[in-house]
Amino acid sequence: MNKTASRTSQRKMRAIERSDMAAPIDQGARGVRYLVAIAQLTDKEKQMAKLAFLGLGVMGGPMAGHLQKAGHEVTVYNRTASKAQDWAKTHGGQAAATPRAAAEGADFVMACVGNDDDLRSVCLGENGAFAGMGAGAIFVDHTTVSAAVTRELYAAADAAQISFVDAPISGGQAGAENAQLSIMCGGDQGAFDRALPVMEVYSKICRRIGDSGAGQMTKMCNQIAIAGVVQGLSEALHFAEKAGLDGRAVVEVISQGAAGSWQMANRYETMLDNEFDHGFAVDWMRKDLGICLDTADETGASLPITALVDQFYKDVQKIGGGRWDTSSLIQRLRALDGSTGT
């Protein structure tokens, strides 16, 4: 549905809601006419919304594109204004100069930015999204940030009569581009239920885990699990190289057994070929693991492998791999013995 059609459906809904038809069913004919009028709207018209999307990186850009393609009316904001303008030219939406301008009149405001401070900057202050959002609107945060800042912003949103859902994502750039993300959410059940149809546009699974912060805590579990798996895969492939084995033949066999994983299926070939520009960057992974380790200190959880792998990623940064994807842990092993891989 194009922007004009989306606005038309929204006007229809508002007109019905304002009319004297909008009465409880037990008030007789007016209630019946209201239900009939709502029923005459198409399913798609009922679902279209006015949206803002803040942050157009390798994840946010494709996600916002899926929303525009689905028929929503999308206004975007990016710290680098030219990126927002380019997105609007490509996808047909609108670009705004500030988060507040993007959020004005929006039913939902989605964000996918860098870290705690970035999230605060797009939410708070005179030009922040919260200042432009109306009562009843919902802010959905797809950034991986600390549970502490999530709860802080949940409280600030609640004071402004806005709902806040923490909804970090997993699936990498390919997941964003192919609308196959996994989304783990925290926040009020009602707000989640309203936001779910929007998030389903770019996800393969989207679940509410619990109250505010539960989504971010679940994302920490995700990153902890990935860290150990990628290190194990790196060691297996490096061992195969040093033993003179055909790495592809090795993976063909072991991937069909208990060693199989998403990382093995999607990253082993690029790891063998020394290609590390296919996913989530080491710099960002270290940011996430830092959140995991800080939170573990607060909760009393023991994360010895995560702490070790975080230091391994620090070694990767030292050899110039900060922007390499997370599978580049194998390069650290190669650097230790002077090998170059296949």
Descriptors for this entry?
single chain, 342 residues, three-stranded mixed sheet, 9 strands, six-stranded parallel sheet, 17 helices, alpha/beta, disordered N terminus
Parts with pLDDT < 50 across at least 5 consecutive residues: 1-8, 10-27, 37-42
Q: Helicity range of the residues?
A: 55-70%
SSE series: HHHEHEHEHEHHEHEEHEHEHHHHHH
Radius of gyration: 23 Å
- The tally of helices reads 17
How many strands in all? 9
Global mean pLDDT: 89
Main β-sheet, spatial strand arrangement: 3-2-1-4-5-6
Give the overall silhouette. Answer: globular
Helix/strand-derived category reads: alpha/beta
Largest beta-sheet details: 6 strands, parallel
Give the N-terminus to C-terminus distance in angstroms.
49 Å
User: In percent, how much strand structure appears in the residues?
Assistant: 5-15%
Tell me the layout of helices and strands:
Blueprint: H1 3-18, H2 29-40, H3 43-47, E1 50-54, H4 60-69, E2 73-77, H5 81-91, E3 94-95, H6 99-103, E4 108-111, H7 116-123, H8 129-132, E5 138-141, H9 147-159, E6 163-166, E7 169-170, H10 172-177, E8 181-186, H11 189-199, E9 203-210, H12 214-242, H13 247-254, H14 262-272, H15 282-299, H16 304-318, H17 329-337
Parallel strand pairs: 1-2, 1-4, 2-3, 4-5, 5-6, 8-9
Antiparallel strand pairs: 7-8
